[in-house]
Amino acid sequence: MATKASRSAARVMMAPAVILLLGWMLVPLTLTLFFSFKKYLPLRGDKWQNGLEWVGFENYSRFLSSSSFWPAVTTTLIIVLGVLIITVCLGVLLALLLDQPMWGQGVVRILVIAPFFVMPTVSALVWKNMFMDPTNGLFAHLWRFFGAEPVAWLSEASLPSIVIIVSWQWLPFATLILLTAIQSLDSEQLEAAEMDGAPALKRFAYIILPHLGRAITIVILIQTIFLLSIFAEIFVTTGGAFGSRTLTYLIFQRVLESQNIGLGSAGGVYAIILANIVAIFLMRIVGKNLDT
Questions:
Q1: Which residues lie across from 54 on neighbouring strands?
Q2: Are the C-beta atoms of residues 43 and 260 closer than 8 Å to each other?
Q3: Which CATH class is domain 66-264?
Q4: Residue boundaries of the structural domains of the chain
Q5: pTM of structure
Q6: pLDDT tens sequence across 9-42
Q7: Which of 46, 110, 185, 213 gets the most CB atoms within 10 Å of its CB?
Q8: Is 198 exposed, middle or buried (0-12, 13-18, 19+ CB in 10 A)?
Q9: Are 98 and 175 contacting, i.e. CB atoms less than 8 angstroms apart?
């Protein structure tokens, strides 16, 4: 049992890490809020130490009134929802498959998890040039083999293409979490259900799937946090064209076009608000599994 002295020592040892983490989060957030009320043009010689022009909520209204704002929000949510559906569904199937005894099981698991360690820019370039190129890509050769016209994926189906690329990156993460959850399942329950004559689908629906509820919740929450700020894949593949511009990419474009850090900071605040709304929604709807 921990004593009062040991708890105090633990707090002292944890304090530097906690202070560093708080500074890592609070300093950028404070600067973002500060610049969002200012007109800051550093490429034109503005220096924030000398005091910048106070514009109040002008940056917020300007960003919100843009015709690209709501389409960017919609695109962001579509990508997040599409990736979550693919990674959770395929993650469950892959986890069930990898849990079965097979030859070279360790090697197969490493190969399945490997894409998660590839940088987003690298994986996007691989998909863009090796798979989705309408002339020399693997999909183009496959289409021609079956006598069909190759598809220009990144222009004709930009959103599905980005969803596929991002899903490929995050599928190993979902598979790893779900595989760990499956391996913690009591095998005696499955054996008893099988002896009672329960078919495989019912064993999955009434035993395995409820057991995976908490793991699925964790996968959804963690992935959503990162997917709301997706940028590199879009920058490398479509450049925000063909209806693939997310809120994060819109902020990037607005800063480049106006050279106004204040306008981009206002967009960043909107992105933070959107992320919190989605997180609260998920915690209320999906996060109930954590309490069961």
A1: 38
A2: no
A3: mainly alpha
A4: 66-264
A5: 0.83
A6: 777 788 888 788 777 778 888 888 888 888 877 7
A7: 46
A8: middle
A9: yes
Which two three-digit tokens encode residue 63?
């960003």
The whole-angstrom separation of Cα 47 and Cα 63 is 23
Residue 59 tokens read as 């940056």
Residue with tokens 């304090």: 15
CA-to-CA distance for 23 and 15, rounded, in angstroms?
12
